Amino acid sequence: MKPIKNFKVIIIIVLGICIHILLLLAAFDIYFNSSLENGMTPVKSTDDPPSKRVILIVADGLRAQAIFDENEKITPFLTSIRKTRGAWGVSHARLPTESRTNHVAILGGINEDPSAVFKKFQEFPVDYDSVLNESKNAWIIGTRDIIKLFQLKDQMKHLRTITLATGKNENADAWVFNEMTSLLNNSNHSQLLEDSGNIFSLHLGGLDKIGHSKKPYSKDFLEHIKFVDDNIRKMEILINKTFSDNLTTFIFTADHGMTDFGSHGSGSDHETYTPFITWGAGIKVNESRQDIYQTDISPLISSLIGINYPINSLGKLPIQYLNLSEENKLHLYLTNIHQLLGFSK
User: Record's GO cellular component, any one (predicted)?
Assistant: First the structure.
C-alpha cells in the first residue's frame, strides 16, 4: 500500500505546483501587459491658451526636502518665487524612482508601463506619447544618456535636441544654461521661438551626479543647488528680455529625489517627494503648498500652451494652479475628462 500512498502525495504536490504556476501566470497576464492604447483620437486642451511657451526645468535627483521649509534659504530666488509670484507644492513620484520612469510621468502623464520590466525599461522602452511630441516646437537640452530616455521620434522635425556626450563636461548643468543662452541669442531661430505651443525642456543632471558620489547633504551638493538657483534667475531675465509679451510659463521640478545614502529607486519620502514650483503666464499666485502627482504635470503643460493632451495621459489637470476665468477652467476640466475617458471633443 505504500507505493499507492506515495503516488497520491506526488499527485497532490504536482497539482499544487501547477495551480501556483497558473496563479502566477494570471497575475502577470493582468498586471504586466501593456495598458497603453494606440489609435486614439488626440484631445486638444484649448484654443485659447494663457501662455505661448513653457520653460520646463528638471533637476535630476533633487528631493523636495532639500529646498523647502528649513532649507529654503539655499534657494533665495526660487523661494522668492514661491512666496511672491508663483505657486508650489510637492510633486509625488511613483515607483520605481528612476530617470526613465519619472520622465515618462512628467512628459507623458502616465506611470511607466509594467510590461516594460521585461524590456529592461531603458534599453527597450515602451512607446508613449508626450507633451514634446504634441508641441508646436520643442528644444530639449541635456546629456545624451538622459535625452535618449525621452524616446523622441526622429521623424518629428519639430523636436530639436541639443545634447552633451556623457562624461565630457565636469559641469553639464553650466553647459545646459549656456546652450539655452545661445539658443535665445540666435536670430536664425527667432520666428520659431515666437510660435505658440513651444516647449523648452532643460535637464540638469549635476545634482544627481554629486548626490551619488558625495551624498545629498554634502557641501558640494548644497553649493550646486545655489548654482542652479542663481542660473535660473539669470535665465528668467534673459527669457523675459527675449520675449517681451509676458506669455512665458516656468516650471521647475525634479524627476526623483535621493536618500541620505545617495541612492534612489525605492519609495521613501526622500525619493518620491520632489519640488514643484511654477510661475508666469496662466499661473495663479498662491503662497500655500499645493501638492500634485507627477503625472499631473503633463496636462498642466498642455493646457497652458493649448496643445493636445498626450494620448495615454492619466494625469488630472491641477485646476488650482491656473489663473483663468471659471468658464475657461470648466472648459479645460471637461477636455481633460474627455481625454481621460478616451473620447474626442
Answer: endoplasmic reticulum membrane
